[in-house]
Amino acid sequence: MANVVVVGAQWGDEGKGKIVDWLSERADVIARFQGGHNAGHTLVIDGEVYKLHALPSGVVRAGKLSIIGNGVVLDPWHLVGEIANIRSQGVSITPETLMIAENTPLILPFHGELDRAREAQNSVAKIGTTGRGIGPCYEDKVGRRVIRVADLADDATLRLRVDRALVHHNALRAGLGLEPIDAEALIADLKAIAPEILQYAAPVWKVLNEHRRAGKRILFEGAQGALLDIDFGTYPYVTSSNVIAGQAATGTGLGPDAIDFVLGIVKAYTTRVGEGPFPTELLDDDGERLGTRGHEFGTTTGRKRRCGWFDACLVRQTCQTSGVSGIALTKLDVLDGFETLKICVGYELNGERYDYLPTAADQQAHCTPIYEEMEGWSESTEGARSWADLPANAIKYVRRVEELIGCPVAMLSTSPEREDTILVTDPFAD
Ligand code: IMP
What we know:
This protein is α/β, with parallel strands linked by helices and 430 residues long. It has twelve helices and 18 strands. The termini are close together.
């Protein structure tokens, strides 16, 4: 059976929610492998709207196993609230349908506080984070002082872990002028939430390997986008996890040979939330138009997204770093009615031409896009369900995107409705 990884191939917000939902209906297991509740997926099923941040998209579908892998950072209080919310919409969530890796790091309240305090300093350090404590929690994981799900099960271990974390954090907080954390109060809070989390704790790597051997279909649900990857993104304006497809293996405990198909989600134009380089950003009426037509406001923070032309150079790069087998192209209809469309095919920097985004921050900031122009289309593509429904110029645009990024279109999404999809290649096909 095929196992599929879904990754965002730009800066996030490519429209993963609908595609992941479409695929999760066909999967047996849906696993998150990185990020945390900085993500925001909106699912619309039979008219009911579900807003998910930390939970895998599979939870809303009966008979599926949803997994939070060790590559995720988990805020236990947020999770309990999110489960309560989703349950109030009539969805059943039990230890049979949701499992959390025992080695998942926990986001604690001081992580969020630290994240927000750093951002509020408004200095050169500002990243434009979601303020959810994602970065500080990953820092603690790598610093070997994070508290993990399994630590909640034993009082003595928990106390040791809290002490270890606070040696670092209370010194840091003193420097930032924040009150020290009271260890006893934190331990009491953690002990109170522990049973709620521990009921879902499992050796996820083992469960997944068993499911794989049993021939079940596994869908790895990525969050954010490859250009926010800690290694391959526009550093330091990135999130703190590996977002690219290789992380599906390390973030769950399945070997990379378990991955049969990598689906890159690609929006027909480009958006970005937060600070950082964005070569094709449009600060004019065209940018406003993309934002308005595309409803480009963040699901998690409500922030207005920056908008720009499609950057084929960047997507070619992310298709390679994630080993993308095929893309799902979304929101083509947002381009309806533009007389001329531009696609970035490379950059110019100091008189030289680049066919990739150079790594150095100052180079990234000064790259000028080289554009290719294409004739737009006046007809509506919204709701198209076959190639025959698309205007000739829209097909030309899609074909040119494929050529430039070096990757075929596997799916084309033409509205938020799940049926409004043109399927070219089924990622789950054996
Ligand atoms: P953090 O993940 O909260 O640390 O934020 C780091 C950067 O990633 C910021 O630019 C955020 O706007 C961006 N980011 C984090 N999560 C998402 C997402 O789900 N969609 C788009 N951007 C995101």
